[in-house]
Amino acid sequence: FIPQVIFLISIFGYLVCEIFIKWIIFTVKDAPTAPNLLIGLIQMFLFQTEEKNIWYSGQRGFQAFLVVLAGICVPWMWLIKPLYQRHQQKHGQYKYQQVPTGNLLDDSEGEEVVYHSDSERSHYDPEPEEFDFGEAFTHQSIHTIEYCLGCVSHTASYLRLWALSLAHAQLSEVLWNMVMRIALQIDGYGGAFLLAAVFSFWACATVVVLILMEGLSAFLHTLRLHWVEFNSKFYDGQGYKFHPFSFDDLSEYSIED
Predict the structure, then answer these.
(1) 94-97: long-range contacts (C-beta < 8 A, 24 or more apart)?
(2) C-alpha angle with apex 16: 59 to 36, nearest 5 degrees?
(3) Distance CA 56, CA 38 (A)
(4) pLDDT value, residue 164
(5) CA distance 85 to 93
(6) Cα separation, 151 vs 233, whole angstroms
(7) How many CB atoms lie within 10 A of CB 170?
(8) pLDDT score of 9
(9) Helix, strand and coil percent figures for the chain, each rounded to 5
(10) CA-to-CA distance for 212 and 243, rounded, in angstroms?
(11) Which keywords label this protein (predicted)?
(12) Which of the two residues, 257 and 178, has the higher pLDDT score?
């Protein structure tokens, strides 16, 4: 968890901070000369930063430090966990209380001991599952590759919201130039009546197409991105399988006095 968070913050957390700083520092008048964030992120990995993308002192050194820190997190995610598990296995962390499995008769009380769950049985299991370093190493390798590539690909997937904003701007321009501007160019009383009718059509198209349809499209894309791309960084789907309560399951266990 720790190297994953460091890897995510050192690259994309830094990019998010740059976005907010750019909103605060630069205005609309500075748009032609403002630094390009995507180009700057690419140059950050190449350890090359153009003069126009430098906006604070020490930027080159700090960005190089973040890239090196993210690079260190990759072998950290890849090797530390399987090596630690092998170390724990060799030093006998699988030592459980030596109690036989199954139902048995207690000599002191003359009562039968019954395990009511697999977890209770596994707690007293004297023979745990054998640790396979090759399997753990392979699993961790796949997990590391999937996480690192997923951070890049999933973050790039959010660019589709940028594409939706561009499509929204183009539709707005089309509706204004092809509808409202034509009516505004007609003079006289006929132009006034035509403008009222055209405005009604333009307003309905704006509400239906630009607000409802485009807003629903952006909402669905954002919901999908948060659920698939963002939540996959924090949810693995591990744990115990849910078994709902049932009286039929109770009939399998019995305690005799």
Answers:
(1) 94/128, 94/131, 96/123, 96/124, 96/125, 96/126, 96/128, 97/123, 97/124
(2) 60
(3) 17
(4) 84
(5) 10
(6) 8
(7) 10
(8) 92
(9) 70, 0, 30
(10) 42
(11) Hydrogen ion transport, Ion transport, Membrane, Transmembrane, Transmembrane helix, Transport
(12) 178
